[in-house]
Amino acid sequence: MKKLIVFIVFFQLCSFVTKAQTPQASITCSIKGGNDRTIVSLFHIQNSTAVKLEERKPDASMTVSFTVDLNNEGIYFVSPGASHGNIYKNGIYLKPGDRVKLTGYVDATMNLDFEKFEQDNPNFETDKLNSWLNKFAKFVNDRTFTKSFDFYSEYAKLEEFATILTKIKTSNKYFNEYLKDLISTDLYYLKAGNFFQFNILTKTPTYDTAAAVQPFYKSLDNAKILSSTAPLNSTRGFEMMKYLLSYQAYKKGIAYQSFFDYTPMINNDLLKAWYLVKFFDKVATQEMFARYVEPNGKCFSTEELKELFSQKQDAVTKYLKGVPGLNFTLKDVNGKVYTLEDFRGKVVVINLWFAAANTNLGERAAFKKAEEDCKTTRPDVVFISVAQNKLYDLAVWKKILADDNHKGMELIDTESRFRLYYNFKVPNRFMIFDKEGNVFSIEAPPPTSPDFKKTIEKALAVG
Fold first, then answer.
1. What is the pLDDT of residues 364-395, one digit of tens each?
2. pLDDT of residue 107
3. Are 205 and 154 within 8 A, CB to CB?
4. pLDDT tens sequence across 237-264
5. Alpha-carbon distance 235 to 215, whole Å?
6. What is the rounded distance in angstroms from the CA atom of residue 98 to the CA atom of residue 183?
7. Owning domain of residue 265
């Protein structure tokens, strides 16, 4: 028994020592100009993303303290708000054992960054980091708000500043490489972004194709830019990659389809995996997962990436053909309740739409025509329109239905059950469930497509 007690005491002491030896650092922030609505958040840059670790309200003396468990040094930001803006200034390069004290000044506009930021005795790494962050932030601000801003000459000055800054080495070799990666990524972001006037999502993008400036963009042709994980050390890493990949595709004459199509152009497996993770929210179906993610499964080689891969794989299985569909409980305009189970024995065709005066009317008209065509020939098919309006939009929905001569099955989904369950990002969608209430297609062709009726026929053939 004595041996057992001694072992237990020894084990507890070891556990205590292990916990006591967990590296920690602290950040104490005194707020000037805050009020009872002030919230202060702590962010950590992880894989090119500002991850919020914690948010707190200041105490009576307008002071906030954070304790951070960290095994590795890295970049942190304190922000006077629940979220962070796009421009990152006033960073903290935090190392185990650091005790950081700072003062943040909040102005009346309640910006997502401090108006002024003072840190007591910052370490050399923090000083160098902020030299770049603040210089970069000024460049972006001037480019946006100064009419006479000459991008090319100002970029040359910024590049020269970056060269001088990276030549000044610290004794911290890890930080030296980290800062070099961050700066090079930011510079590539500016250069590639400028080629598209910082807008590649428009249907008619603008390209900077003047012959005189083409030498300026020559360095973007280098395939080695995406051959390491360097972009993950900057908050603009993924934005840089989008612009750079779009630029390289443009130069090769590749037609833009989606950012996923550019994945093969990334020459580093870990970078490729994190790039895919960044756009996981757009992987809405199992078909998309099989097309874009599964072929790159070997890239998800770390434990964290393996877990993210597994979670996404589990999430998209609910879209698989033959999986039980969402057994919704929704009301019609008169308050009568319907569920998917009510239509067992029939193929259910659903039009998810948003009831507004000018939204999706062409597809809605085609949907109603398809319903009329099937009424006599296919009584085992039911067409249901499900409006995605909120409670405060009910009047709009009811008015559209009152003005519509077509009297079909019209339901309302005020809690966005379909969108949340199937992770839809837009309200307009066509779905088909078979006679057993199982998924046949959650991304059916629109009614204006000749494949719409063909898909219904295929669902009927299931039985």
1. 889 999 999 888 889 999 999 999 888 877 88
2. 75
3. no
4. 999 999 999 999 999 988 767 889 999 9
5. 27
6. 24
7. 129-278
Q: What is the pLDDT of residues 8-59, one digit of tens each?
A: 444 454 444 444 567 899 999 999 988 888 889 999 999 999 999 999 999 9
**What is the number of residues in the chain?**
463
* Nearest-angstrom CA–CA distance, 79 and 86: 12
* Cα–Cα distance, 388 to 89 (Å, whole number): 40
Radius of gyration in angstroms for the set of CA atoms belonging to the chain, rounded to a whole number: 28
In 3D, which of 406, 345, 351 has the Cα closest to residue 381? Answer: 345
Cβ atoms < 10 Å from Cβ of 132 = 19
C-beta separation of 127 from 108 below 8 A: no
pLDDT digits (tens, 9 = 90+) for 186-235: 999 999 999 999 998 777 788 999 999 999 999 999 999 999 999 999 99
The domain boundary, picked from 122, 156, 177, lies at 122
Give the relative orientation of helices 124-145 and 173-195 as an angle to the nearest 10 degrees: 10
Can you read off the two tokens belonging to residue 87? Answer: 């421009």
> Going by C-beta distance under 8 Å and a sequence separation of 6 or more, which residues neighbour residue 129?
75, 91, 93, 179
- CA-CA distance, 230 to 48, in Å (whole number)? 10
Please tell me the predicted confidence (pLDDT) of residue 7. 45
Domain final residue, candidates 122, 157, 182? 122
Tokens of 30: 């005194």
Judged on CB neighbours under 10 Å (0-12, 13-18, 19+), 235 is buried
Domain count, the chain: 3
Residues 85 and 197 in one domain: no
Whole-structure pTM value: 0.69
> How far apart are alpha carbons 283 and 312 in whole angstroms?
9
- Same domain? For 438 and 358 the reply is yes
Distance of CA 276 to the CA centre of its chain: 11
Measured CA to CA, the distance from residue 175 to residue 180 in angstroms comes to: 8
| CATH code, 406 | 3.40.30.10
